[in-house]
Amino acid sequence: MIAAGLGCRKGTSAETLLSALAAACAEANISRESVSVLATGEIKRHEPGMIELAERLHLPLHILDEAALKQVETRTRTVSKHSLAQTATPSLSEAAALAAAGEASELIVARLIADGATCALARSKDHS
Question: How deeply is 54 buried, as exposed, middle or buried, from its count of CB atoms within 10 A (0-12, 13-18, 19+)?
Answer without folding.
Answer: buried
